[in-house]
């Protein structure tokens, strides 16, 4: 530039650091666990603006780093996290995947005496993500976002009330475990976690679909309707039953057997 002498020497500028400092890009781990249970990520979500059917305002998700299998619990208060952790660890052991290490963001719901006691009793290591570095527990954080976004879409697609958010999230979790991608081509998280053959999906139904539930004679009078109209809200007992919401009576029914018609009818409830 005319009139200005530019020297090649570069100097460290403190003022530029104060004004333009960027965080270094987070590295991608090359060596991921290959054994289910070796590394488990957990993260809480909430409070939600609307209380769910069972009175919950929070959810907590556990996600296996290797298989990508996830499990979600719904809580009325954050101090229920230790109870959910205990249930998850017991079920992980029953599936042949004893947890070796748990990663969390270090929130008080995870960093407390009750959680530490559970982990110590099981000989499980605990890792905490560095402050302001959600990427270190990104698997669980992204999972919460995916479940919430998927659940939101499911509710609005069928114009269902927001207080059914827990049912939507639980159904999304159920479906993703049987269809979601993993590091092993052609294998679902369900297959890798439970070490079974292809995950069954023949029981899948459209969330929020209208249906009719047969009312057994023990629950109706002579001239009462023999069926009740409802909405499909998910699964229970793995794949052998369904949850049906009766809006008029505000009841959630557990329905046994399969749909007798793909379109609308259901077998009797209990």
UniProtKB/TrEMBL annotation:
Pfam family membership, one: SH3_retrovirus
Top-level taxon of the source organism: Eukaryota
InterPro entries: Integrase_cat-core, Retrotran_Ty1/copia-like, RNaseH-like_sf, RNaseH_sf, SH3_retrovirus
GO BP of this protein: DNA integration
Any GO molecular function: nucleic acid binding
Domain Integrase catalytic: 29-197
Protein name, as recorded: Integrase catalytic domain-containing protein
